[in-house]
Amino acid sequence: MDYKDRKAMPLFPISIVSELTELSARQIRYYEEKKLVTPLRSEGNRRLFSFYDVDRLIEIKRLIDEGVNLAGIKQVLKLRENQVQESQAKSQSEHKDYKKDLSEKELHQLLRRELLESGYLNKTSINQGDLSRFYH
DNA sequence: CTTCTGACA
DNA sequence: TGTCAGTA
Asked: Which of residues 45-74 of A touch strand B (CB under 7 A)?
């Protein structure tokens, strides 16, 4: 029948997504190539983006504007997914506190650790802006 | 007419 | 990244 998640339903072509995200089609295709987003394809091989994809791209757009490079964005996106998983697991099992939710402090610590692991603080420095807000 | 991939600057 | 080519 209909899709598992309405937000994962393949709906819009790249032109619409481009307007919604204020990203050029070129950029969107490039980010897909870098696996930051994975839109489905129509029978004619046309990309079909879901609300979920659009949200991700808007998030990417925001980070790009802040001067974060792709390596850094991948880290942030990875965290965002962890948050989604956390909230899903949370609503599914309202049991004990096995799947505890992350506090803001824990979230920042996790992000800082991931960023450091990816070696983002090397000489190249993935960000030109303020990622400092993430590791208060 | 819109999108796609590959390629060049 | 923008843009152009040649398709589907």
From this structure: 45-47
